[in-house]
Design goal:
With 462 residues, the chain is α+β, with helices and mostly antiparallel strands. Helix content is 38%, strand content 21%. The chain folds into 2 domains: 29-139 and 367-456, no CATH class; 142-366, Transposase Inhibitor Protein From Tn5, Chain A, domain 1 (Alpha-Beta Complex), CATH 3.90.350.
Length: 462
C-alpha cells in the first residue's frame, strides 16, 4: 500500500483577501522563551544545584549522558513551564531554550537528544532513599526537607521580629491502586492527605501522607524541625503557628507552650462552648436586626476540655448572626490579651489564614502537585517535592523580579501564561545564542524589568 504523502504547505483558507497557508519550516523555534527568567532566578537562589545535591548518583560516569543536575533542572523547569507528565519530555528534550539554560544545547552522543526523555526521568522520580542494589540514583529525604527552609531563610535577608507559620492538610485524590490508598469520608473519595506549611507565600514543608490519619499527624515533628532551623539563624524571632481546628490538639499545643512558640488554632464547636456564648448570640441577633447587616459579638475566656487538655487555655468566641441564623466560631490561642484583643485576633490574625488555601491551589492546580500516580508512596513523595520546588522557583521569580508590576501578586499559572510561554526564534552562532521574541509581545516592559532586576542579584554560591 502506498504511503499517503503529507503536503509541506497547509491550506488554511483566506485572510485579508489573500490565501492563508502554513508550514512547519520555521527552524529552531520555542514556545518557552520565558525559561530564561527561570534560569536567572535559579542562579540567584541556587535552587537546582542545591536540590540536585540531595541526590547521589551511583551510575558509571563513563556511561552517563545526562547528569543528575540536568535531570533535576529539566524536571523542575518543565513543571514551571506546564509540562506535568514525563511523557512531555520526549518532545521538549529537543527544545533549544531549555537545552541552552541547562548547558545541553547539543547532545553528548550522536544517538542521544540534548536532554533526557521520560525513561531516564522516571528512574529519577523512583530514586530510593539511600543505597539500592539496582537503582543507582538515590536521594536524601531529610536534606530535601531542610532545603525548603534554607531557601526561605536565605531569601528573607534581615531577621524579622515575628513570623507566622500556616499549617494545613488537604486532599490529593488518587484514582489507581497506589501504595497508601485509603477512602476519606470527609472528601468522599480515595486520596492522600498531604501536610503543607507556609510562611506567607514561602513554602516550608510538603509531606505526603496516607489519608487514614488525623489532620495533625506528624505536625509536631515537622514544626519542631522547622523552628529549630529558623532559630539557628534567627534566635530571637517570635514564631506563631496558625491553623484550623484539625490542629487544635494537645500534643501540638503543649509542644508550642514548652518551646516558646505561640499558636492560634480554630476550635471545633460543641455544646459546652456554645453555652459560653448563650447571652452573646441574642445580642448579635438584635444588633443584626437593627442594622440589617451581619453582626458579631466577641467573648474572651479561659476554657478546657473534660479530659484531653492538660490545662486551661484562652479561647476567643465569635457570636455572629448572619443571613437570619447563628454562626458561632471559636479559636484557641496562647497569645495574651495585651498582645491582641479578641476581635482583632480573630478578624485580622486568624481569618488571614485563608490565604494559605490559595497557595495550596497554586501548588496543586498550577504546578501539578496532585499528580501522584506512581505506584509507591516514596515515588509520589518525590513527585510532590519536584512540584513544590517548581512553586518555590516561580515564587522566587515573583518576589525578586516582579515587585511593583502587574504580576506582583499574580498566580503561578498567570505568570506562566503571560511571561514564560513566549514564542521565539533561537539562533545559535559561535559567540552567542539569540532568542528573538515577537515585537508585539504585550508584556515586554515587565519582561525587561525582570531581566534587569535578576541581573543585579549576586548569584548564589554553589
Amino acid at each position: 500500500m502506498r504511503a499517503q504523502s503529507v503536503p509541506d504547505s497547509l491550506e488554511l483558507g483566506e485572510a485579508c483577501g489573500r490565501k492563508l497557508v502554513g508550514a512547519f519550516d520555521g527552524g529552531a523555534l520555542t514556545s518557552d522563551a520565558g525559561a530564561v527568567l527561570l534560569s536567572a532566578t535559579d542562579k540567584a537562589i541556587g535552587l537546582v544545584d542545591r536540590f540536585a545535591g540531595c541526590f547521589t548518583d551511583g551510575r558509571d560516569p563513563g556511561r552517563v549522558v545526562h547528569d543528575v543536575r540536568t535531570l533535576v533542572g529539566q524536571r523542575v523547569f518543565g513543571l514551571c513551564l506546564g509540562y506535568e507528565d514525563l511523557n512531555d519530555h520526549d518532545q521538549i528534550r529537543h527544545d533549544p531554550v531549555l537545552g541552552a539554560i541547562l548547558g545541553k544545547l547539543e547532545a553528548g552522543r550522536a544517538d542521544c537528544a540534548p536532554l533526557s526523555g521520560k525513561s531516564t526521568l522516571n528512574r529519577l522520580e523512583h530514586a530510593p532513599a539511600g543505597a539500592h542494589r539496582y537503582r543507582k540514583i538515590s536521594h536524601d529525604p531529610r536534606a530535601i526537607e531542610d532545603l525548603f527552609v534554607e531557601v526561605f531563610l536565605d531569601g528573607t535577608g534581615k531577621a524579622p521580629k515575628e513570623i507566622i507559620l500556616d499549617l494545613d492538610a488537604t486532599d490529593d485524590p488518587i484514582h489507581g491502586h497506589q501504595e497508601g490508598r485509603f477512602f476519606h469520608g470527609y472528601y468522599d473519595g480515595y486520596c492522600y492527605l498531604p501536610l503543607y506549611i507556609f510562611c506567607g507565600r514561602e513554602l516550608l514543608w510538603a509531606q505526603l501522607r496516607r489519608s487514614n490519619i488525623d489532620a495533625s499527624a506528624g505536625s509536631v515533628q515537622a514544626v519542631e524541625r522547622i523552628c529549630a532551623q529558623i532559630r539557628r539563624r534567627w534566635p530571637k524571632v517570635k514564631i506563631i503557628l496558625r491553623a484550623d481546628s484539625g490542629f487544635a490538639r494537645e500534643a501540638l499545643m503543649a509542644w508550642c507552650e514548652t518551646h516558646r512558640v505561640d499558636y492560634v488554632f480554630g476550635l471545633a464547636r460543641n455544646a459546652r462552648l456554645e453555652a459560653k456564648i448563650a447571652e452573646a448570640l441574642p445580642q448579635a441577633r438584635a444588633l443584626s436586626e437593627q442594622t440589617k447587616a451581619p453582626a458579631r459579638v466577641f467573648r474572651d475566656f479561659l476554657w478546657t476540655t473534660k479530659d484531653s487538655w492538660s490545662r486551661r487555655r484562652r479561647v476567643i468566641a465569635k457570636a455572629e448572626w448572619t443571613r437570619g441564623e447563628a454562626n458561632p466560631r471559636f479559636v484557641v490561642t496562647s497569645l495574651k490579651p495585651d498582645h491582641l484583643a479578641a476581635r482583632p485576633l480573630y478578624e485580622q490574625l486568624y481569618c488571614a489564614r485563608g490565604e494559605m488555601e490559595n497557595r495550596i491551589k497554586e501548588c496543586q492546580l498550577d504546578l501539578f502537585a496532585d499528580r501522584t500516580s506512581a505506584a509507591s508512596l516514596r515515588a509520589n513523595q518525590l513527585r510532590l517535592w519536584f512540584a513544590s520546588f517548581a512553586y518555590v522557583l516561580i515564587n522566587a521569580l515573583r518576589r525578586l523580579a516582579l515587585k511593583h508590576t502587574a504580576f506582583e501578586v499574580a498566580t503561578c499559572g498567570t505568570i506562566r501564561l503571560k511571561l514564560l510561554k513566549v514564542g521565539a526564534r533561537v539562533t545559535v552562532s559561535v559567540r552567542r545564542i539569540k532568542i528573538a521574541m515577537a515585537s508585539a509581545f504585550p508584556w515586554a516592559d515587565e519582561w525587561r524589568l525582570a531581566v534587569a532586576r535578576l541581573s543585579w542579584i549576586q548569584p548564589a554560591p554553589a
